[in-house]
Sequence to fold (148 residues):
Amino acid sequence: MNRELLKSDLNISSFFRPQTFLHALRQETAHSLHEPLVSLQLVTALSTPPEGAPLSVCLEGILLQGAFIDSSDVLQPIETADEPALFPMPKVYVAWMSKPPLSKASIAVSLYTNATKEKFLIDLMLPCASEADVKTFILAGVSLLLEP
Fold:
């Protein structure tokens, strides 16, 4: 894998096969750490790369459906039906780690190629204010999309 590519922000929505890229990143991380693939977990961070990650990538071009990210990088519910259905995500840093840092309250949000949700890519862990909010986001059907 070209490490120069990993240093720039990547618009994952323009990838022909984004899932293949994420798998290649996992394989490269396993190779560099001398760890088995099954021992790696995907770690997500919004403002800075995950601490201690050997290979992290900054992704952009992701849309959030059913919620939004506030200024403190925390998932928030949509208050009214008048709000837009899709919000652009801030830059998302992802990395595969064998020993991920302990996370605060977070929810696994599924990433799909488009709004039909026919093609699932991966779950990204997004921070939320509390564990009680997790149920709210599940009921709201919060998801991530590469294109509307």
